[in-house]
Inverse folding.
């Protein structure tokens, strides 16, 4: 269902009632209950139902307007549909001018403790392998725009930040545009040598975008598209640090955990692929090295994006962005020196 309707972020109830006339005509408008899951950093999510704790519910996702320059909304809708066909995302119910809505999934947001339990991490690995095997309905060749996007984001970085305290730190500690461009050219040259596969990637597979209820459900497909396989996996592992002003990178999976996870991933990947595309199970060490190296690209991406959020929108990820850039430089040489066994 497509509706020519705008739902206000500040006063959403009127718009939601109008939308539910089409999606849930049996609901009484005056009885509709709203539960704000989170006033998210990127979008607003609202659970709607006739009774507050009812499982018969619809999730409304309202875009923040400042994100429109970074997100292809048509690609996001397509991703939701393609991944739902694999039973790894909620069913899309309707689209409106500034968002969309989908079935409520009665699940628990995955946290670090849950993510390290065997049933959950195995399910995440299988889910990501399945998503990575999806092919978009297009004849265009698979390619990643990762490095093009990084250069475009650098172009958007401001000379100064509006907050004077942050601006002082930005000027003192954040790399200049020219030094960032140099880093990205060097990083691209290095990563091109390891030939990570281009696959259909979630794009933001952090723990907050994964639900668990005896099975895994992924949400939030704003950045889903073809990208490097190792980048998507690295982004997931790095998300264990938390999406806060105080990320704890000691919580990220160690080598032992990553190797177990990657073995499960390869098993599922091979089930989904034809013979020519299968990854030999003994290549888990090679995939591990690729993931470690692409972790640098995730730090660079989130570092620059965090600063831009502070400069161009109400999405304040300044401290987070500074810490991700710090991680890049702290681990760069060690990761560059890694070689397959």
């Amino acid at each position: 269902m497509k509706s020519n309707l705008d739902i206000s972020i500040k006063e959403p109830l009127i718009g939601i009632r109008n939308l539910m006339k089409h999606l849930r005509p049996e609901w009484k408008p005056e009885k509709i209950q709203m539960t704000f899951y989170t006033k998210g950093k990127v979008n607003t999510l609202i659970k709607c139902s006739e009774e507050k704790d009812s499982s018969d519910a619809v999730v409304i996702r309202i875009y923040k307007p400042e994100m429109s320059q970074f997100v292809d909304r048509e690609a996001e809708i397509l991703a939701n549909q393609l991944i739902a066909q694999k039973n790894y995302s909620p069913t899309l119910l309707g689209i409106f001018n500034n968002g969309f809505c989908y079935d409520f999934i009665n699940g628990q947001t995955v946290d670090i403790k849950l993510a390290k339990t065997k049933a959950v991490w195995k399910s995440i690995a299988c889910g990501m392998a399945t998503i990575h095997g999806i092919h978009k309905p297009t004849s265009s060749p698979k390619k990643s725009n990762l490095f093009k996007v990084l250069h475009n984001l650098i172009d958007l970085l401001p000379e100064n930040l509006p907050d004077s305290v942050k601006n002082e730190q930005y000027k003192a500690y954040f790399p200049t545009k020219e030094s960032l461009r140099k880093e990205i050219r060097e990083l691209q040259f290095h990563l091109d040598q390891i030939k990570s596969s281009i696959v259909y990637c979630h794009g933001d597979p952090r723990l907050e975008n994964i639900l668990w209820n005896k099975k895994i459900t992924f949400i939030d497909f704003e950045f889903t598209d073809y990208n490097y396989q190792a980048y998507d996996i690295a982004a997931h592992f790095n998300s264990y640090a938390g999406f806060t002003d105080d990320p704890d990178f000691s919580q990220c999976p160690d080598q032992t955990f990553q190797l177990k996870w990657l073995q499960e991933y390869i098993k599922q990947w091979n089930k989904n692929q034809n013979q020519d595309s299968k990854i030999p199970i003994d290549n888990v060490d090679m995939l591990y090295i690729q993931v470690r190296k692409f972790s640098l690209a995730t730090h660079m991406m989130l570092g620059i994006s965090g600063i831009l959020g502070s400069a161009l929108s109400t999405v304040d990820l300044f401290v987070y962005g500074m810490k991700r850039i710090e991680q890049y430089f702290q681990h760069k040489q060690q990761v560059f020196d890694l070689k397959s066994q």
Observations:
- The first helix runs from residue 13 to 23.
- Residues 230 and 290 are 6 Å apart (CA to CA).
